[in-house]
Amino acid sequence: MSIAPSQINLHEVVQEVTATFLRYEAALMANDVDALNAFFWNSPQVTRYGIADRQLGHDALVAYRASVDAPDFTRRLDDVRITAFGSDVAVAMCEFVRSDTALRGFQTQTWVRFAQGWRIVSAHVSMIPFPSTPSPLPKAP
Fold this sequence. Notes:
Blueprint: H1 11-30, H2 33-39, E1 47-49, E2 54-56, H3 58-67, E3 75-85, E4 89-98, E5 104-114, E6 117-128
Parallel strand pairs: 1-6
Antiparallel strand pairs: 1-2, 3-4, 4-5, 5-6
């Protein structure tokens, strides 16, 4: 499969995936388990690597979501980047900051358009110590 440069980041596709990604984020923070499960491809091939967990297959994902409490923190997304490849595949990436830790979070999701709509086929979330942005040097007098 080859994608022509003109098919990368089609405006309407980026807009669709961005809106879906933000609905996913709202469901995540509300711990809307049914919505979260529905955002993922219902397949044994779906994969999610979490901060301290992993789910291989939709059944494992559903079981995991049933065991997770609602978040007791807030989360701010930074540098959300959606890259679309043609009209049916996109990658969503972002950094995030949680109110309960100094660690920096990173999230990557691969989205595919199916007959039912956009679904996550793979996801990876991690958190690491991240150096703060250095202060700018003072200006010379």
